[in-house]
Amino acid sequence: MAVVSSTNSTVMNNVEAVRATLYEAMKNDERTVILGEDVGARGNVFLITKDFIGEFGERRVIDTPIAEASIVGIAVGMAMEGLRPIAEIQFADFIYPSFNQIVGEAAKIRYRSNGEYTCPLVIRTPYGGGVRGALSHSVSIEALFYHVPGLKIVAPAFPDDVKGLLNAAIDDPDPVLFLEHKKTYRLIKGEVPDGHYTIPLGKANIRKAGTQLTVVSYGLYLHWALEAAERLAQEGLSVEVLDLRSIRPMDKTAILNSVEKTRKLLIVHEDNKFGGIGAEISAMVAEEALFSLDAPIRRLCGPDVPSMGYALPLEEEFMSSPAEMADAMRAMVKF
Amino acid sequence: MPQLGETVTEGTVAQWLKSVGDSVDKYEDFVEVSTDKVNAGVPSPVTGTIRELLVKEGETVATGTPIAVIDEVGAASAPAPAPPATSAAAAAPAPRAAQPSPSAPSPNGSPAPAASAVSELELEGALRGASPAVRRLAREHRIDIRAIKGSGSNGRVTADDVLAAARTGAPTPHAPAAAAAATVPPGTRTSTYAQPIPGTSISLVQARKIIAERMVESKHTAPHAWSMVQIDVTNVWKWRAREKDRFERETGYKLTLLPFFIRAVVESLAAFPLMNARFVPATAGGPPSIYVNDEVNIGIAIGLPANLVVPVVRGADKLSIKGLAVKGGELIDRARKNKLGVDDLAGGTFTVNNNGANGSWASAPIINGGQAGIVTMETVLKTVVVRDDDSLAIRSMMNSCLSLDHRVVDGYVASGFLAELKRRLEAMGPQGDL
Q1: Residue pair B356/B392 in contact by the 8 Å Cβ criterion
Q2: B51 vs A262: which has the higher pLDDT
Q3: Do A10-193 and A205-334 come out as alike in CATH topology?
């Protein structure tokens, strides 16, 4: 399955990158523990932890009851007492029962204990739509946790970032919410450098350089934005695409540098527009770079509805598309 | 042209319910279409502003043919929003206060001119679509935005246009007025009222000086008191909507709420003559007195980018709503073209300030010197109101604010006047003769 190339890297898809990184973490550090629903005997619903239980044993690969508050609560205790737990919420749609453990406990441990305790916890969860997942397997949850100081949120789009950022999340002394877009799991392949490496949390990455418009995105939409930007390149229009990678901390410097260059900003994300990640980025840019803006900031985001429906037209109505993104980019470049 | 029936292939525009520049709400009917089967209003697919009407009334076109262009609110490709107003009167930036009585000679003996209103007005137009980046770059490179041909959508001047102009030797901002130039050392950047530069001084044109002096004088000598009343203008608003297209066809002027309001004001002044009076200070010749005017001359405050003018509708009590609309439209038109004469500006006895055009909800205007009061029209807002029978209703409500010279009248008269104004305006419409 994995192909080793001549430059000491391996081609993987996103789900393989998660699996490979978790495997290395389990191998390299005995403090690492994986817990969640079906992570053991079943090997995770996407087979990310397949055979882990056989190799590392059921004390380190723990099948939990269907009780998300317990999964995170137990992981918080493990993290405070010296383990390196990686908790899994099977689908992001199920994370709500653990909200209090994440927001009320994990994110506040360091502050509450005056630095005596930290909470080196990673919570992984697959999120996002476009897979006919309907109400319980499609949701984006980042904005719900975005507001919370003490919590880092990571949402890589490419396999090399998955590995580097997951390693950084595991090393981080504080809780990290690690979001994996499930539609990109097998769709997106790429070269992943061999060996252990980390990518700093809170650093965005210019995936495509351009001069006339800055597009900020992450996750599945980042790939669609790149596709749309390619279309515009064929029309002679130059769009810069910034992959946030880390949603929080926000890489203000990268966003501002790019906007100061292109003078226009489009934010695209799948999560709902109202009160979303794009709202914070818009406000930040309006506060810090108003006099660089040559067009109103625009957000192309999920509509203000409770969920995407199961029916294909309803899902398509919720989701954007490379064509819609290209239209928005074109209008902004030509503004 | 929508398809108004399965077998219908064409439709006739019976009547446009909106004109170019009008705003339209999503689902609000904006055109009436007739076919051989039905007559029907067509709801707007978006909220926005009518940019273009492509089909004339009476014309028949195939279904699917574009009949109008609507700039959607918030669309990135839309041009800079037009002033949120449907009339020349409302389009004028709302002034906060009245102009000094221009018939009085200014300190240097000449009548108060309306300043360089035309050039300032044009500048305002060009600047309206200029983004923050364009304004900053133009300031940094000393470029006159008005002189650049825009390459953006709808001719918008883009940041790149400014930079290109800077590279190719740019048109610089127009020379300041001679008087201003004389006082500024060569090489110093100069500000104008319409293009202020932080850290620099603006030399006042004559009109601005007089405004400043008169405002201070009025505020210092006339003790201002303030009151506000909320008026239900739903019916008069409907009346206006019913009449406005025909009125514009017949007279060439837009029909705004202003003439209805002025009509209610003059009727209320008739009921409270003390509001149409002025305080005469003590002089060597005699004790102070209050002179009750025998004419009703209504000043209309019109804000221009660089100053404020208050042309006067003389004998306003003898004009119908239609007459007030025509006279007002003519004055506003001339004010915006800087063509008001001294006679147009003289003799006001009471002032009306249409302050709501830009969304103001309440304001405390300064009284025009030599008058007893000034009353404002604030923005019209759809509001849920509880009616006398405890039912809820959505009504178009407008605040009207009154500043009064407390030397002339007390709260008793002023609140009586406001109550009368409210009662009369609420009694107007929804139909009748203008």
Answers
A1: no
A2: A262
A3: yes
Where does A10-193 sit in CATH, by number? Answer: 3.40.50.970
Question: Angle B234-251/B258-271 helices, nearest 10 degrees?
Answer: 120
Amino acid at B371: Q
Contact flag B77-A331 (C-beta cutoff 8 Å): yes
Place of tokens 């932890």: A49
Q: Which of B141, B174, B224, B406 is catalytic?
A: B406
Domain A205-334: give its CATH architecture: 3-Layer(aba) Sandwich (3.40)
- Nearest residue of A to residue B139 by CA position? A291
Lowest-confidence segment of A65-74, B108-117, B284-293, B360-369 by average pLDDT: B108-117
Backbone angles phi, psi at B53, to 5 degrees: -105, 120
CB contact (8 A) between residue B158 and residue A291: no
Tell me the domain boundaries of chain B: 10-72, 88-106+211-427, 117-204
* Residue A333 confidence (pLDDT): 95
Residue B184 — pLDDT band, cuts 50, 70, 90? very low
CATH architecture under which domain B10-72 falls: Beta Barrel (2.40)
Q: Hey, how many other C-beta atoms are within 10 angstroms of the C-beta on A150?
A: 16
**Percent of chain B at pLDDT above 70?**
80
What's the confidence (pLDDT) of residue B3? 76
Interacting residues of A164 by C-beta distance below 8 A, sequence separation 6+: A197, A198, A199
Strand order across the B29-34 sheet: B39-43, B29-34, B10-16, B60-62
Half-sphere exposure (Cβ direction) of B95: Cα atoms closer than 13 Å: 28
In which band, very low, low, confident or very high, does the pLDDT at B7 lie, cut at 50, 70 and 90? low
Note whether B158 contacts A332, CB cutoff 8 Å: no
Is some CB atom of chain A closer than 8 A to the CB atom of B139? Answer: no
Per-residue pLDDT at B304: 79
In a 3-state reduction of DSSP, which class is residue B253? coil
Average pLDDT over residues A191-203: 96
Phi-psi region of A219 (alpha: psi -120 to 50; beta: other; left: phi over 0): left
- pLDDT tens-digit series, residues B327-382: 999 998 888 887 887 788 889 999 999 988 778 999 999 999 899 999 999 999 99
Burial class of residue A131 (count of CB atoms within 10 Å of its CB; 0-12, 13-18, 19+)? middle
Nearest to B131 among A293, A328, A334 (CB): A293
Helix axes A252-262, A277-289, angle to 10 degrees: 60
How many CB atoms lie under 10 A from the CB of residue A310? 14
Confidence of residue A334 (pLDDT cuts 50, 70, 90): very high
Q: Count CB atoms within 10 A of the CB of residue B167.
A: 9
Boundaries of every domain in chain A: 10-193, 205-334
Phi (first) and psi of residue B189, to 5 degrees: -70, 140
A137, A274, A276, A309 from A304: Cα distances, Å: 18, 7, 11, 13
pLDDT given for residue B171 in this prediction = 59
pLDDT band at A67 (very low <50, low <70, confident <90, very high): very high
pLDDT of the residue at B126: 52
Does B76 contact A298 at a Cβ distance shorter than 8 Å?
yes
- ipTM reported for the complex surpasses 0.90: no
**Do A139 and A93 meet the contact criterion of CB atoms below 8 Å apart?**
yes
CATH number of B88-106+211-427: 3.30.559.10
